[in-house]
Amino acid sequence: NGIGGNVGINVVSADTVVIERCRIVQMGGHGIYAVSGPRLELIDVASQRNGGNGFLIAGIGGGAHIAGSRFEVNSLSGIAVTQGANVSISTSSASANGEHGVLVSATSGFYTEVTAERFTSVNNVQSGAMASASGSGKAAIDIARSTLSRNAVGVVATTTGVGATAYITAAQNLITANSTNGIAAAGVSAIVVATGNNVSRST
Asked: Which of 31, 34, 29 is nearest to 6 (CA)?
């Protein structure tokens, strides 16, 4: 609760970590930070009003399953997955964060991937879900049966550089009332495949 450190839960060296029924609030940096390949289970976790990301995981071999959790009003993104990590999200939400609901990013040599189902991403300043790649990196999001609403953009794939790939598959989602675009792609090899979504009321 903002007392005793910059990061709420800092996973530096571990094989498997289970975080269950925890609330991380008002830390100066990230709510939860994991690096160098741990496997995490986040169950019924709330990470709110932190100065960085609600949850940040980075590194090849690192992964997490997130269920029944909330990431709200963080200064950066609710969930940030980068540099080769792999995360699955179900029955969780990211709302009112300063950047993205979920950000999936990769630079050269990394493949970063997120799957999300029954995920709610609303009222985030930039996007509900973004896949972003640069150099030769690859970033992918597979999102289904989710709600992405009242963000600047619902879902967006973006690349920098000729060798980068950002790929989003979006199926059976409600994508509504986002202020610029419901679905967007920008850059060479920035791809969104959308099937059976309800997209409405973007300006």
From this structure: 29
pLDDT band at 192 (very low <50, low <70, confident <90, very high): very high
What is the model's pTM? 0.96
Residue 24, both tokens: 């991380």
> Per-residue b/e over 51-72, b at no fewer than 16 CB within 10 Å?
bbbbbbbbbeebbbbbbebbbb
d(CA 6, CA 141): 29
Neighbours of 73 (CB within 10 A): 18
- Dig out the tokens for 33 from the structure: 């930070």
Query: What pLDDT, in 10s, does the model give residues 80-105?
Result: 999 999 999 999 999 999 999 999 99
Do 79 and 106 meet the contact criterion of CB atoms below 8 Å apart? no
Structure tokens at 83: 């540099």
Chain centroid to CA 154: 13
6: helix, strand or coil: coil
User: What does R_g of the chain's alpha carbons equal in angstroms?
Assistant: 15
Using DSSP, state whether 119 is helix, strand or coil: strand
Largest CA distance in the chain: 47
CB-count exposure of residue 3 (10 Å: 0-12, 13-18, 19+)? exposed
